[in-house]
Amino acid sequence: MATANADAAEVERLYELGDRLSSAKDKSQHAADYEAIIASVKGQNVKAKQLAAQLIPRYFRSFPALGTFAMEAMFDLVEMEELAIRIQAIRGFPLLGKDAEFISKIADILGQLLTSEENVERDAVHKALMSLIRQDVKSCPMAIGILSILLFFKIIQICWRKSEEIDSLQPLFKHVESGSEIREKIICFLRDKVFPVKAELLKPQAEMERYITDLIKKSVQDVTGLEFKLFMDFLRSLSIFGDTAPRESFQELIEIIQAQADLDAQFDVSDIDHIERWTSCIYMALPIFTRGASSSKFLNYFAKQIVPVFDKIPEEKKLDLLKTVAASSPYAVAQDSRQLLPSVVQLLKKYMPGKKVDDINHNYVECLLYTFHHLAHKTPNTTNSLCGYKIVTGQPSDRLGEDFSEHYKDFIERLTGTEDTVRAASKRLTQGMADFNKAISSAKTEEEKTKIKADQQKSTMTMRSYNNILAMSQPLHGKSPLFIGDKKITLSWMEQPKKPAASTAGGKRTQPASNGNAPLNKKGRGDGGMHNQLVNRAFEGLPRGGGRGSGRGRGRGGRGRGWGYR
């Protein structure tokens, strides 16, 4: 009973101190009262601590000399076991954050609290951070604000050396390690809470968007794949890179991606991280290629650095590389197509048999034929010396006076052998696919059904690949073939276009393409689907290992920032 009375008296005393401070015209004359409120944090009274968590922030700015003392008390409060005390303290941080001296400390503490398992506490942290960011922008309209800059740096991570040079950033980096749960929660907070209100935060818009762009360009030297994708998505959402932006703006985005891909570095087949980063970056660049940015550096790197050692690349990485080049080939210019075509033909001859065999690597052949068509469409006469065709453009590069008949004979034999092999494999697959529905009906467990459906989907994609190979190889038999340079072919792993709905009475149905994919007269939807599926797969989750440990260029070695597929 005595303890209860003492606790009630302590709470009453704090209310009196608060009332005195509230009514005082010159609060600085009541420093002793404020010190008493701060001191109550050290006691055992839970209700008194909860009340102190309200009063300390309320009068914080009136006693700058006690600022450090008050801040330490608040930090003690957010470490208390009692949830109510922690939440009250978190709600008070926006008032403390009006003093720039303590911004980095507050950012550090709130960043740690994002890992809380209590939903109500995590929600309070989100609201406190957003309140801090908003009030900081209002007080500094010509800058994004100290806190929001620090939050950006907490993710994009300038690098350890630079953080040591900037005192205000040091507290933010002690928790930012590979695989850190705090790091992951901060990323989610930025993505879900900060980025959606960027229009509110970035004012004046054009100036602030340029500021953030320059900040990210300078700072993305050491990030995980997920983090880089996060910030590239953010940049692409800015108005300076919007639909009406000039071509130069999109080239600027490509240059940021090129820097991440290490296109100036010598290709090392043993560096899996570089292979994965190159593949991930070019997929990320695909929607920017469609806006007119150049794919030259990526395609030239593939031709000069990757193709010569393609045999030595791990098998599980080869297909991803070929898919990136296939997806990029529609955006290659004639000069790049001319340089890349010999490498593509070289790989085609490797994977297309000269006679009928039991099976081929249909995924490789599909990618390479698709790439061949799109590159040859840009520079058709280059195929004269490579494949023995007789395409006349009137240019000296036609080389019509030279005899390439052996090249033609070899190429046609390989096309025929590939077609015979694919037709036979397609027939076998068709027979097998007829049994899937029956197998699903007779499956006894959901696990069995799931496995059968996965096999069915895989077989469907294989059949698409076979159909595509036949659709792309058949036009290549003539001396002057027609190269497919549009979107008639939807690659098997891309999102397939929806079948056209039947028209009303009296109308005509749209005729499907010969390979069973997109209608010939419709623009395919495959690019976006392929990009979404594969980029998301490339950057799924926070990579936990691998990373930039090769010690190559730009001081990246040893930090474990993985880029790999999962």
UniProtKB/TrEMBL annotation:
Q: In which family does this protein belong, per the annotation?
A: Belongs to the API5 family.
Give the source species.
Triticum aestivum (Wheat)
Protein name (record): Apoptosis inhibitor 5
Quick one: which gene encodes this? LOC123144510
Q: Name one Pfam family in it.
A: API5
Cite the residue spans of the region called Disordered.
496-566
Q: Which GO terms describe its molecular function?
A: mRNA binding
Q: Does the keyword rRNA-binding apply?
A: no
Write out the entry's keywords from A to Z: Apoptosis
An annotated GO BP = regulation of programmed cell death
Gene Ontology cellular component terms for the protein in this record: nucleus
* Protein origin, superkingdom: Eukaryota
* InterPro entries linked to this entry: API5 (IPR008383), ARM-type_fold (IPR016024)
